[in-house]
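Deliverable D2.4 — example input (structure tokens):
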């Protein structure tokens, strides 16, 4: 029995059909304008871009719950005041945490080998959910990832 090329293609794609059914979940987003200041200790390094990450404080349920699910990352010109607007998914976690670190060498990596003066800081953002929030983050911990700085 000889099959047409169209029939063969349809038969080959048939196993992939169930995969397409799970793509249409609704995502509920909440707009947050976050303003505040990124600070370093007196006499600390001031130069370099700041990477600012927003994370959910908690995600998942029961035994699958975990902290610090990343929402988004932006790059700021440096330390000092900032104001940014973010879209936060409301169905993927609870609470809001802001983590920032100073990229002194401009490589986009926190403390790559040979670098030990990239400072980091983390703050839980009070008042979430609200459309306008404020936070001040002091970058005082050298080479510290968000997971090290967060104590739930």
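Example output (designed residues):
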């Amino acid at each position: 029995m000889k099959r047409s090329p169209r029939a063969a293609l349809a038969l080959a794609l048939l196993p992939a059909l169930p995969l397409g059914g799970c793509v249409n979940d609704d995502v509920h987003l909440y707009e947050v304008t976050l303003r505040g200041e990124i600070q370093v200790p007196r006499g600390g390094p001031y130069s370099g871009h700041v990477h600012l990450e927003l994370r959910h404080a908690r995600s998942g349920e029961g035994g699958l719950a975990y902290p610090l699910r990343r929402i988004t990352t932006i790059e700021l010109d440096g330390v000092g005041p900032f104001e940014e607007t973010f879209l936060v998914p409301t169905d993927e976690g609870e609470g809001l945490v802001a983590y920032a670190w100073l990229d002194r060498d401009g490589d986009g990596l926190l403390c790559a080998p040979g670098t030990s003066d990239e400072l980091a800081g983390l703050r839980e953002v009070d008042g979430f959910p609200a459309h306008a929030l404020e936070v001040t983050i002091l970058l005082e911990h050298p080479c510290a990832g968000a997971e090290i700085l967060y104590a739930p």
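Strands lie at 29-39, 49-59, 66-76, 80-89, 97-103, 119-124, 132-138, 141-142.
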